């Protein structure tokens, strides 16, 4: 059973035309209008540099996106950066242990403040002229500047430019818009009960791997939304039921035995969740909501505990206050750039970040309980093995698709019965871009 949140009213099929004199937006709207429901996008929407730039400016720079987790910022001064085209966002934990986000640009002459993807700092010091900012973004020191009492600039007017940030059960979301949607708060209320038992605020990073896929970011997200290709993931299929996304009447005979095993595991999971008061049913709003999402707790195959060759746990110490390893996985998908799996023993988050029309960064982070000991409670190679292999396989699939959609012979094809969520993601993209391009 799948329930939904009350959603904003859907946009009309075609809103006001693009601003006069903007041929790229006009072309975008024409391509969006040509997309047929139930089929993939036209090739230019995956390959054209000008349209990719519009993706960044109209969608990524205006919608909430997943930046990372609080476990990546365990101490005051710890930071991470997220780059979206020419925009760079600095996310950090300030001296009062609050998570903040800023534009990664000095208020003097614009130098990039922090270049590394992650690290730790005391103050934020510009490497060019040594302007120095506190972790709350206020300007502390500007060498050789005339003081305010002598007619110089007021330091209070030169604080770092802030970026909207929300923490949802340990997940950090940011929005670059001047007037961000409040949708993240409504979605957070639904998602939090699924994730809070896993205690992401009491977790630590066991491993993090950045992988560049040679494909458009939308192809990366589409690939994640279906298991039609899951025969290509032998390691994952040890614990991931291949009938994911199919209704009962859509299960083919060759997968019937797997599906019967899935139904039995789901029944066991239902009993375990009811005993512990854990939410389990699917809740989704994938098309009309600005922060499209889907969350559910689902059974795993084998021992039903974790992503291992036999489904048994990979970390001896369980997360949060969980008392049972056989609790399947919470799966969360949020658009434009997040999916995650939360087991009783560890959590894996995936952040999708566009690098270019045909290149996408997939940042995978494995979280374990903060008191779990490497080499004693878990082995990093074993912990990361299934998804390191799966990510490499997915990168190959995305690369093949990028090569195909760039070919003049490509025409958008029909989705299969198991690709409903791919269609939902593409429909969400079309709706968001049409709304923004028509403003």
From TrEMBL:
A single GO cellular-component term on record: chloroplast stroma
Molecular function GO labels: 2 iron, 2 sulfur cluster binding; choline monooxygenase activity; iron ion binding
Group of enzyme by EC: oxidoreductase
Enzyme Commission number(s) from the entry: 1.14.15.7
Catalytic activity of the protein: choline + 2 reduced [2Fe-2S]-[ferredoxin] + O2 + 2 H(+) = betaine aldehyde hydrate + 2 oxidized [2Fe-2S]-[ferredoxin] + H2O
Pathway: Amine and polyamine biosynthesis; betaine biosynthesis via choline pathway; betaine aldehyde from choline (monooxygenase route): step 1/1
Domain Rieske: start-end pairs: 64-174
Region described as Disordered: 1-22
Superkingdom of the source species: Eukaryota
CDD domains, alphabetized: RHO_alpha_C_GbcA-like (cd08884), Rieske_RO_Alpha_N (cd03469)
Residues annotated as signal peptide: none
Residue intervals passing through the bilayer: none
Keyword Repeat in record: no
Stretches with biased composition (Low complexity): 12-22
Cofactor: [2Fe-2S] cluster; Fe cation
Gene3D superfamilies: Naphthalene 1,2-dioxygenase Alpha Subunit, Chain A, domain 1, Rieske [2Fe-2S] iron-sulphur domain
Oxidoreductase as UniProt keyword: yes
Keywords: 2Fe-2S, Iron, Iron-sulfur, Metal-binding, Oxidoreductase, Transit peptide
Family statement: Belongs to the choline monooxygenase family.
Chain's role: Catalyzes the first step of the osmoprotectant glycine betaine synthesis.
Designated name of the protein: Choline monooxygenase, chloroplastic
Protein's organism: Rhynchospora breviuscula
């Amino acid at each position: 059973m799948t329930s939904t949140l009350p959603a904003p009213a859907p946009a009309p099929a075609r809103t006001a035309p693009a601003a006069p004199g903007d041929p790229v937006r006009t072309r975008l709207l024409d391509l969006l209008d040509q997309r047929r429901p139930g089929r993939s996008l036209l090739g230019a929407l995956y390959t054209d540099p000008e349209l990719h730039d519009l993706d960044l400016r109209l969608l990524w720079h205006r919608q909430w996106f997943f930046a990372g987790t609080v476990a990546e910022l365990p101490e005051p001064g710890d930071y991470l950066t997220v780059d979206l085209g020419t925009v760079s966002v600095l996310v950090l934990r300030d001296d009062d242990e609050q998570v903040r986000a800023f534009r990664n640009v000095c208020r003097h002459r614009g130098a990039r403040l922090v270049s590394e993807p992650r690290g730790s700092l005391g103050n934020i010091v510009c490497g060019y002229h040594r302007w120095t900012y506190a972790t709350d973004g206020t300007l502390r020191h500007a060498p050789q500047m005339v003081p305010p009492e002598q007619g110089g600039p007021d330091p209070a007017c030169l604080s770092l430019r802030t970026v909207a940030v929300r923490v949802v059960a340990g997940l950090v979301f940011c929005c670059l818009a001047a007037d961000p949607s409040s949708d993240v708060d409504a979605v957070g209320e639904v998602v939090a009960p699924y994730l809070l038992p896993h205690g992401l605020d009491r977790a630590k990073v066991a491993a993090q791997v950045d992988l560049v896929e040679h494909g458009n970011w939308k192809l990366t997200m589409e690939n994640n939304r279906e298991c039609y290709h899951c025969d290509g993931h032998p390691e994952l299929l040890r614990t991931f039921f291949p009938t994911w996304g199919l209704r009962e009447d859509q299960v083919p005979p060759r997968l019937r035995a797997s599906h019967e095993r899935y139904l039995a595991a789901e029944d066991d999971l239902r009993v375990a969740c009811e005993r512990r008061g854990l939410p389990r049913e699917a809740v989704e709003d994938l098309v009309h909501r600005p922060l499209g999402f889907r969350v559910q707790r689902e059974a795993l195959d084998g021992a039903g505990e974790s992503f291992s060759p036999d489904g048994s746990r990979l970390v001896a110490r369980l997360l949060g206050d969980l008392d049972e390893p056989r609790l399947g996985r919470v799966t969360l998908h949020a658009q434009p750039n997040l999916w995650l799996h939360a087991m009783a023993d560890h959590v894996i988050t995936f952040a999708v970040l566009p690098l270019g029309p045909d290149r996408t960064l997939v940042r995978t982070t494995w979280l374990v309980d903060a008191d779990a000991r490497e080499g004693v409670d878990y082995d990093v190679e074993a912990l990361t093995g299934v998804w390191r292999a799966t990510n490499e396989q997915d990168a190959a699939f995305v690369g093949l698709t990028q090569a195909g959609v760039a070919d003049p012979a490509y025409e958008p094809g029909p989705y299969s019965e198991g690709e409903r969520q791919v269609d939902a993601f593409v429909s969400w993209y079309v709706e968001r871009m049409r709304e923004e391009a028509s403003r």
